[in-house]
Specification:
Layout lengths: L5 E10 L7 E11 L4 E5 L6 H9 L6 E6 L9 H11 E4 L11 H10 L5 H14 L15 H13 L5 E5 L7 H17 L3 E6 L10 E6 L2 E7 L15 H11 L5 H13 L5 H15 L5 H9 L11 H16 L1 H31 L8 H16 L4 H9 L11 H16 L3
Parallel strand pairs: 3-7, 3-8, 5-6, 6-7
Antiparallel strand pairs: 1-2, 1-4, 8-9
């Protein structure tokens, strides 16, 4: 059984402890992070997730509790040893890139090795290897300001990896990037986790990135409210088996917010059936189970595919394993009607509550509007409010949706009105209306 790499027990962090402006930042935090895991600390601004990250970095001492990395407490090391720990064990990338504008890309990446006493030729070679690996070697002689945001963040990732640390920390690394650049950076972090076997710890408030993680720690007000295991990734931390289909589906719904209930059910069933097949076998099994769930294939036909050779379209399992899977699948399908009713009830309750909230906010906004409003404008305004509440769009994107003409998919309000609605909605959200 693997041992955890990072352990926190009843960890507490105060800012300005004992002073009149004392602030309780982390409250009785207990975590275990295992080698090669991808972990996300998720929550709203000010919840303590960055505080946790900088404690792991070795830059923010804890006030009470216990904290270990690799079996030792870095904050009990002598100052010089703590610096070595930070150089060798942990790398970090930031939202703001923090590249030195007067140094070219190659020198920015090589910089941490100067403090390790690495000779110039050797550190430049290592830096160039990383730049080549992440597809930005042709930018090596350019200054950071000549690069796009996505390219600058990949440079920052190279710099964080140049000393080959065991742990890579990422503090809102895609917060300043467009969607395409953000996706490339997130795929790069996943590759580092899967191929280089680095422990990756990400801080984010965006639910779109939860699916990358093995596990997610949900934080609020300095506490860890709950931990969610991603059933789509084979777990490193020992976990209890046998999660029910309902709870498994609910977990998947959190990391795949855009998936349909049927897609979530298929993913949950496949995860329930196996965690030890190859990616290709799981992919094929998921497609076959989907046909059974959609009533396009019988379980007997599925069994035939399970035992057929892989090169003939099967999954290539032995008969005993295939029979075991069919039995489990039939048990799950017998409960599927109850599960479907349960999810429908949850969705209806959530939908009713969400619609009421959206309608209330829409009326509050339109009370500030003196002109005539078309039905399509009301519909588009409600859609934009719902997207903003869910965090799918930013404040600026909300404004653009309201300002965009109706024929282009927007709400068609005048710019001043769109701006007024945007400011007012943010106030209402902040007040918890």
């Amino acid at each position: 059984m693997p041992e955890p790499l990072i352990v926190a027990r009843n960890l507490e962090i105060y800012y300005n402890y004992g002073k009149s402006n004392e602030y309780y930042a982390l409250k009785k935090v207990n975590i275990e992070i295992y080698p090669q895991e991808y972990i996300v600390f998720f929550g709203p601004s000010g919840c303590g997730k960055s505080t946790m990250l900088y404690c792991i970095l070795g830059a923010l001492p804890y006030t009470f509790g216990e904290f270990y990395i690799g079996g030792q407490d870095p904050y009990k090391l002598p100052p010089k040893e703590l610096v070595k720990f930070q150089q060798k064990t942990v790398g970090i990338i930031y939202q703001q890139f923090n590249l030195i504008p007067s140094l070219n890309v190659l020198d920015n990446v090589a910089l941490p090795q100067i403090f390790m006493g690495i000779p110039p030729a050797q550190r430049r070679k290592r830096a160039m290897e990383l730049l080549e690996r992440f597809g930005i070697a042709e930018q090596a002689k350019k200054l950071p300001t000549m690069l796009s945001g996505g390219q600058q963040q990949r440079v920052a990732i190279c710099r964080a990896l140049v000393n080959n640390p065991d742990i890579l920390l990422a503090d809102e690394p895609v917060g300043n990037l467009d969607e395409a650049s953000a996706k490339k950076v997130m795929e790069t972090l996943l590759e580092i986790n899967e191929k280089e076997k680095k422990t990756v710890i990400l801080v984010s408030h965006d639910p779109r990135y939860l699916a990358y993680a093995h596990r997610v720690y949900f934080m609020r007000d300095g506490r860890i409210e709950r931990e969610f295991i991603n059933p789509e990734r084979k777990q490193i931390k020992p976990i209890e088996r046998g999660a029910s289909l309902v709870s498994e589906t609910e977990k998947l719904a959190r990391i795949y917010p855009y998936a349909s209930p049927e897609e979530l059910k298929v993913k949950s069933i496949v995860n329930y059936l196996t965690q030890d097949l190859t990616f290709e076998q799981i992919d094929r099994l998921e497609k076959l189970v989907k046909l059974v769930v959609e009533r396009k294939m019988s379980t007997q036909m599925l069994y035939d595919f399970l035992v057929s050779p892989f090169d003939k379209g099967g999954v290539e399992l032995n008969q005993a394993r295939a029979q075991e899977m069919i039995q489990k699948l039939e048990d799950v399908l017998k409960r599927s009607i109850e599960v479907k009713r349960f999810r429908r009830k949850l969705e209806e309750e959530e939908l009713d509550e969400t619609k009421i909230h959206v309608r209330r906010l829409r009326m509050a906004l339109l009370d500030q509007f003196e002109g005539e409003v078309k039905p399509i404008q009301v519909k588009r305004l409600e859609e934009a409010i719902e997207d903003r509440l869910a965090g799918y769009i930013t404040k600026d994107e909300f404004f653009r949706k309201l300002d965009l003409p109706i024929e282009k998919g927007g709400a068609g309000f005048k710019r001043n009105t769109a701006k007024k609605f945007t400011v007012y909605l943010e106030k209402l959200i902040a007040q918890g209306v």
